[in-house]
Amino acid sequence: MLIRTAALTKEYPMGSTVVPALRGVSVEIGAGEFVAVMGPSGSGKSTFMNLLGCLDHPSAGQYWLGDQEISRLSGDELAAVRNRKIGFVFQHFNLLPRTSALDNVALPLLYGNMPPQARREQALKRLTQVGLADRLDHQPTQLSGGQQQRVAIARALANDPTLVLADEPTGALDSRTSVEIMALLQALNREGITIVLVTHERDIAAFAKRIIQFRDGQVVEDRMNAPDDAAAALVALPAEAAA
Amino acid sequence: MSFAAILRIALGALRVNKLRSALTMLGIIIGVAAVIVMIAVGNGAQARVEDQIRSLGSNIIIVFSASATFTGARSGAGTLQTISEDDAYAIARELPDEIQTAAPVLRGTGQVVVGNANWSTTFYGVTPEYFEAREWTIAEGRGFEPAEMNGAAKVALIGQTVAQNLFGDENPIDQAIRIRKVPLTVIGILERKGQSMSGQDQDDLVLMPISTARKRILGATALAKSRSVGSMTIKVRQGVDIKVAEENMRELLRQRHRLQPGQDDDFNVRNLSEILQAQEESSRVLAMLLAAVASVSLVVGGIGIMNIMLVSVTERTREIGLRMAVGARGRDILTQFLVEAVTLSLIGGLVGILLGIGAAKLIGGLAEWRIELSVTAILLAAGFAAVIGIFFGFYPARKAARLSPIEALRYE
């Protein structure tokens, strides 16, 4: 198993009371899976993703990523795990402004202490993989939303992570670009990259192989899904004016 | 993460907001420049006083006869001048550990005449010790020979002012001058000393052997008969407490003059270098005060840096969150912002140094003040700027480093 959580719990202090955000979630996700996490806001899916992403400490319970127990690690050790094993894709891309696509992709490598030449080569490889080899020196403002998200995905892949976490990656994109991004994620998944995706859109979740539903801090549904093929869906969509 | 990479990030961030970075630096620039200018002005004033001390001869005590103001009935009867040449030699002999040299000086004023030109000046009858005591050298010509000293030879050394006024561009050496109708041959010209503390022209004088002054110029006056002198110029040895030397010398003189306990001194002691040292001290205090006031502006500049860094941390919260998400540790973020703040203050410091040096030279030129740029002050100002960068940059940097990555990523 790549991911194993046991009775994972997270509570937030709110004044004198404690608000539970996650109440004992036990989930296993294998390497190579493509999981969509769904649920209304306040269902605990974001908290779950934060914990999976090693951005936060659980209040109780355990979390293993590979053979490493994450719930025991210090802040600096979490940073190292994020750097080496996890790639993040965000709804609003979170690219560094006034920074070239290449440098944005190379950012995780910078914190991984990779020498400059190797950083460049690796970043170039990842940008090529997402189809932006001709946009290396473009700054985020010079790229379309879809292109920006591709740069963000290339950045998530930079350090050869074992897990890619995508938090509403299509939330800021139009429907066609959304499907394009999903096609890219599906292609990456076929190459063996494990993807966990948070979304509240059913048709986006339909591209995943497994759907986990959250409500009130607990898993209420966990089922396999026969995924739609995003690449095929893209062909079916009417071609829009290139934005 | 390598330091070079961090430095590049910091410089990049500063370049993004050029105007803001420049304005932030301005505080440090003004502070550093002010410190450098103030220290340069203060040191200049101090150096001027030091020069005056040097021109007087350092560690000098002057003993004057106090006959005119002497009120006791048991005064040295009949003599106008209470101290003698022998007092000077006795002081040098009896207090060898404290006194380097003691020079008896006979003083007079008169009209010096050369051909049609004449000039009113002061003449001094001196011994070779005088030159040692006043640290005075001869610019042209030669000093007094022992034979001339003993034989009351009609020779004289003249100061630069006298030479200028009597001879103009002519060479005075081997020319004759007349003082009170006595012809003297000029054998040398003294090195220029400049003005004394009281604004007196120290180069307006004629020196001659003490025997010449006594026997030939002052002639038949009471002075000529005894060995008494108007004053003694005494040089205290380096490293000896001038107060102690003065006290011991005073004791010796009282003994030699057979003064009873309780009786007033029949001489006056003036310790000029002490007055000058007090002036030097006060100009040093002034310099420090100026530097302190200037460094206040450095601190204000530092607060400017802190202010801007806080704004910058807030503005870049999402960037910080992202950096953390892709693996930046707290200390990576801390270093990044600290380097930014220190870079601001160091660049400001460098520009401030250049501006300070320029301003100091300009002020020196315009106000005709003496300016002493000191390397120590410049290094100190630059170091202080760096320390201010670290000190005022630390709080914003730590604030950035302590952000929770989740909240930072979500920050709008």
Summarize it:
The complex is a heterodimer of chains A (about 240) and B (about 400). Chain A is an alpha/beta fold and about 240 residues long. In chain A, about 35% of the residues lie in helices and about 25% in strands.
Describe this structure in words.
The complex is a heterodimer of chains A (243) and B (412). Chain A is 35% helix and 26% strand. By secondary structure, chain A is of the alpha/beta class. Chain A has a single domain, classed as P-loop containing nucleotide triphosphate hydrolases (Rossmann fold, 3-Layer(aba) Sandwich). In chain A, β10 (210-215) and β11 form a beta hairpin. The mean pLDDT of chain A is 92. Chain B is an alpha+beta fold and 412 residues long. Chain B folds into two domains: 3-53 and 278-410, no CATH class; 67-265, no CATH class. Chain B has helices at residues 3-16, 18-56, 85-94, 128-134, 146-150, 160-167, 210-217, 222-225, 242-256, 272-315, 317-325, 330-367, 375-401, 405-410, and strands spanning 60-65, 83-84, 99-114, 117-126, 138-141, 155-158, 176-179, 182-190, 205-209, 228-229, 231-236, 267-270. Residues 72-79 of chain B have low confidence and may be disordered. Classes of the chains: A alpha/beta (243), B alpha+beta (412). Chain A binds chain B through residues 50, 53, 55-56, 75-76, 79-80, 82-84, 88, 90, 94, 96-99, 107-108, 110-113, 155, 159, and chain B through 1-2, 5, 12, 16, 318-319, 321-332, 404-406, 409.
